[in-house]
Amino acid sequence: MKNESCKNDRGSFKKSIYQGIYNSLVIIMAALFLVGGFIFKTNAHENEFIVYEDYYRKNDQALTVSSDNKGRLKKTAYLTFDDGPSNRTEEVLDILKENDINATFFLIGNQINKSTKKTLKRLVKEGNQVAVHTYCHEADCIYDSADTYYNDVMKAAKRIKKYTGVDPKIYRFPWGSVNGYIKNYRKDIIMRLKKEGLEYCDWNVSGEDSIGSPGARQIINNVKSNYRVYNEPVILLHDANARKETVKALPAIIKMYKDAGYSFDIIENRNKPCQWKPY
Ligand SMILES: [Zn+2]
């Protein structure tokens, strides 16, 4: 009996050690979970300022399937260039002209001046579309409030009109239309600009050419990764001094779409601009 109880005591002693280890492990795991959760939450908060492109680009698919007058599926690609005008704009225009196609340029107002006037006139004359990509493009100067964004876009629109003679009808939010900066006044600003005859336009295919310094091959592969997902792809590329590789990649991107049966057009002729999220 003694032995038995001793055994039992030893057993329960052993058991309580195991229980202790188990409890400690549970506490450590819970602590890790909480700390992990906190870190994840912190990161998630930081990530609010990054575009939710992958999630929202799906929304556009259903909206953009259209057909020609014989009921055949029409496949039209919309090349869009952000951040111009730049020293590369003429090179981009040359390639578009060689291919007999047009694109839409989302321009930064403060880069439009006498030295870029000739290029912009050419851009419009050759059938390309001018659109607004804000006046100063810096998050802290455009996204402070609904008023600052509204004023900045209107200022850019006026400048574009002054230098090209064209009233822009489309604008694009830097970092896309779903970004943390505008979340408190997103609907407000979209409605205000709509009253001015301005619609926003996102994208559903991206060359990712402004993320780091990708080479031409990488940019082509980025577009290729989902270029046939849409019948009306809106392709994001950049027209900026540093984007030499984008210019290099452009002929291959155009060929890729042409070979897949797509024609090209400007956003103005799309049945609606690409918008990630209804407002
Ligand atoms: Zn931009």
Describe what you observe in this structure.
With 279 residues, the chain is an alpha/beta fold. The protein has two domains: 1-47; 53-269, Alpha-Beta Barrel (TIM Barrel). It contains nine helices and eight strands. Strands 1, 2, 3, 6, 7 and 8 form a six-stranded parallel beta sheet that branches. Strands 4-5 form a two-stranded parallel sheet. β4, α7 (186-195) and β5 (199-200) form a beta-alpha-beta unit. The radius of gyration is 27 Å and the shape is globular. The termini are far apart. Residues 1-9, 35-58 and 60-64 have low confidence and may be disordered. Zinc ion is lined by residues 82-83, 133, 137, 174. Residues 82-83, 133, 137, 174 line the site of zinc ion.
List keywords for this structure.
279 residues, 8 strands, TIM Barrel, disordered N terminus, 2 domains, single chain, alpha/beta, two-stranded parallel sheet, binds zinc ion
Topology, pairings included?
Layout: H1 2-47, H2 53-63, E1 76-84, H3 89-98, E2 104-107, H4 114-125, E3 129-132, H5 139-142, H6 146-164, E4 170-171, H7 186-195, E5 199-200, E6 205-206, H8 216-224, E7 234-238, H9 244-259, E8 263-264
Parallel strand pairs: 1-2, 1-7, 1-8, 2-3, 4-5, 6-7
Helix pairs in contact: 6-7, 8-9
Bound molecules: zinc ion.
Zinc ion (ZN) is lined by residues 82-83, 133, 137, 174.
